[in-house]
């Protein structure tokens, strides 16, 4: 079994583990399994070993929170000597000469970046395949690992690395975490917003344990206090399994996961009742407009003629949205007012993470726009509205499907600033209902 990030860092700080050995073992696992899993766009084998040796020689080794921990980074971040492809052949391949904020914070904390993980073009879709590979679900490789942080989720769920960085614009951390049986945290917009998709996109961690999730988000946010997972006092939790606005049917096993989690949280002393926000229909229009226009704005720096067929259609639609003036702050304000109304009487909302099962793994990038849109919207009914509101949300594994073997999960949502509460509730679920950490276990 692969050690957790907490265990690795503690052992490295104590001089019981060598960062170079830890990194070489991670690279061996990647070499053995990634041909099937398809998690990485680029493995930094030589560079990672060199950087691990540099970590081992650091005079502050004994105080580094991620000392010697191998980490995978989503292919959207600036890193010295690398380029972020955003899953596309249409962007610049010029290597940059400085780390962006995310990589700089990881390295300052002692992490070793072993590679860049696969994403769909411009991170639009909940399936992560590119012309050179497909990120597959380690629990059942017939299925996609999700997206857009699908490569990161696959790398962690396959036990290749204990931690991975992701970003979430409409569920892009939580959806692949749910599909791959991981903990995935989307922080609030006030904590780790990256500015993309008109404020909907944020950075977040994917991990196999709540403690590892808390550790990584504390580093990404430069907020050491987040690493301490609290034991929350009893809170009021509203529970809903109805897809907001659309009311599409949710598979029985995904609904059952919510009932299971609710039972464990009730046993921990929390008050559970059926309840949900009054979702306005305009909410769907507002977040969809940003999902269309966000990639269109990003594509200005790309060679549009080289974008995939589905992406070109998406960009055309996004530009129409922008020209029509459909990115309106009042649409978001109306939704936030409804969310605040709900959270005035509840501290947390409990829902399924997925509104449908994952799609089969395949070369989705070769298909048309509608062929990608329809399955994407069918499975992401519970996630995007919290990007639109800017509220924190966490995905926690609950069980596995008896039919497909795929994991089941729940989503917990809190008001802004509620990341520690969500981590504490997730830890209570983890203690009451432990999950297998990886598909290797």
Automatic annotation (TrEMBL):
Pfam families: Amidase
Top-level division of the source organism's lineage: Bacteria
Domain (Amidase): residue spans on this chain: 22-423
UniProt xrefs under InterPro entries: Amidase, Amidase_dom, AS_sf
Similarity-based family: Belongs to the amidase family.
Name the record gives this protein: Amidase AmiB2
Organism, as annotated: Amycolatopsis bullii
Gene: amiB2
């Amino acid at each position: 079994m692969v050690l957790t990030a907490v265990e690795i860092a503690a052992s490295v700080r104590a001089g019981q583990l060598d960062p170079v050995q830890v990194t070489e073992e991670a690279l061996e696992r990647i070499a053995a399994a990634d041909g099937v899993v398809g998690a990485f766009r680029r493995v930094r084998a030589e560079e990672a070993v060199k950087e691990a040796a540099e970590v081992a020689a650091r005079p502050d080794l004994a105080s580094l929170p991620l000392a010697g921990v191998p980490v995978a980074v989503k292919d959207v971040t600036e890193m010295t000597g690398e380029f972020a492809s955003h899953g596309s052949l249409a962007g610049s391949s010029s290597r940059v000469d400085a780390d962006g904020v995310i990589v700089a914070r990881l390295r300052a904390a002692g992490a070793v970046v072993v590679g860049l993980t696969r994403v769909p073009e411009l991170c639009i879709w909940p399936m992560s395949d590119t012309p050179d590979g497909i990120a597959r679900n380690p629990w059942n490789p017939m299925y996609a690992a999700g997206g857009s942080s699908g490569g990161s989720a696959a790398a962690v769920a396959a036990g290749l690395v204990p931690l991975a960085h992701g970003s979430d614009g409409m569920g892009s951390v939580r959806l692949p975490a749910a599909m791959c049986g991981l903990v995935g945290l989307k922080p609030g917009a006030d904590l780790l917003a990256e500015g993309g998709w008109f404020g909907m996109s944020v950075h977040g961690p994917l991990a196999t344990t709540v403690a590892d999730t808390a550790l990584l988000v504390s580093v990404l946010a430069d907020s050491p206090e987040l690493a301490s997972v609290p034991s929350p006092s009893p809170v009021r939790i509203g529970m809903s399994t109805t897809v907001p606005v659309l009311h599409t049917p949710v598979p029985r096993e995904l609904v059952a996961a919510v009932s299971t989690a609710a039972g464990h949280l009730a046993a921990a002393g929390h008050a559970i009742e059926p309840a949900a926000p009054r979702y306005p229909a305009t909410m769907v229009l507002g977040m969809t407009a940003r999902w269309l226009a966000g990639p269109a704005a990003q594509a200005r720096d790309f060679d549009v003629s080289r974008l995939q067929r589905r992406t070109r259609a998406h960009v055309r639609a996004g530009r129409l949205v922008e020209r029509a003036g459909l990115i309106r702050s009042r649409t978001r304000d109306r939704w936030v007012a409804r969310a605040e109304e709900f959270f005035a009487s509840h501290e947390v909302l409990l829902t399924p993470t997925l509104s449908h099962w994952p799609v089969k793994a395949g070369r989705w990038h070769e298909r048309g726009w509608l062929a990608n849109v329809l399955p994407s919207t069918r499975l992401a009914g519970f996630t995007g509205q919290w990007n639109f509101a800017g509220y924190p949300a966490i995905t926690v594994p609950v069980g596995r499907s008896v039919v497909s073997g795929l994991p089941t999960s729940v989503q917990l949502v809190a008001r802004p600033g509620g990341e520690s509460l969500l981590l504490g509730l997730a830890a209570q679920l983890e203690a009451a209902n432990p999950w297998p950490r990886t598909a290797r276990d």
